[in-house]
Write the structure tokens for this entry.
Amino acid sequence: MQVKFLNILLVDDSEDDRYFLKRTLKSCEREWYVMEAESAEQGLDALQLGNIDIVLLDYSLPGSDGLSILTSLNHLYPSLPIIMLTGQGSEKVAAESIKKGASDYISKNGLTKLSLMKSIKNALDSARLHKRIEEKNRELSQFAYVLAHDLKQPANAISRMSGLVALNYQDSIPDSLQKKLELINQSSKQMYDLINALVCYTRLDLGESHLFEATDIDKCIELAKSNLKSQIESVDAVFECGAFPSITAIPSFVVQLFQNLFENSIKYCEVQPVIKIACETTPTYWHFTVQDNGLGIPSNARQKVFEPLARLHNKDVYLGSGLGLATAKRIVNIHCGEIYFSDSGDEIGSKLNFTVSRNLTIAQGV
């Protein structure tokens, strides 16, 4: 059986190391084509041309560290096997590389033909398995999306019909029946909101084409607030916003992200909500914070709340789907960032942080 010709992208700023790796690959009994890149930017440009089977990524690159590039590549090309290279072996770097999505980790110091071949084989096998799992997960998400979408119409119909009955026959319906109709209306609305949240959550998995583009954060925040107009006005919520940059992102996802965060801040607050939004810029990330004066998140629950259907408070008192923060986390992951709660200092409430990678490329799709 003929062995597949492999296209390898080698991202390393050292000309000597690139020469050494190419020579080692040439000594292997297999056909390769090696495309070279001296920086992360050149590597991303090469990947956009397509036809890359595997990436050999140096840990130390000019202007950025290999781990941040690894995170970006893993989100943009989840099925692409990536092997992290370092000059010296480090268990800490190895563990962090695997955690952030590397298929394998090898040290250039003492590298042999056999160790490189073994690493490449393992990475390719792992990528094939990952691709099959992703396909199955996408099928399940498609099923959940269609099911949830089809359930929206009857749930909405129940809510509308019970409301019409209560309105048209309010003078002739006994109080006990009126209360039951109100309960039906409230329950069906809650079901509709849950189904809608499920649709938002599952659509992130469906492989739809979304492009990163220049995104005005001020406009995204205003759109999110507009979508929550009735909730904001009902509690007279106050928003304090800083100065925001234009970032590279998927605008509709960013609107959904802020909308979910604002909705939580309003829902879990027993006084007039005050929501503060700020942003700082680092060399590799845009770092946003959303701070409120609500009930807060206990330190031992700050990771659990991002799990699907996780709830900390009585669902009969605080209605919701349990998918708001889970959806927010997935949106942040798509943007190669992180989301987490931190201490809010002496102030009450919660302080949520999320980051968006600055290595995303305009017109690049997910």
In short: The chain has three domains: 6-111, 133-206, 209-366. The domain at 6-111 is CATH 3.40.50.2300 (Rossmann fold). The first helix runs from residue 15 to 27. The CA atoms of residues 120 and 318 lie 51 Å apart.
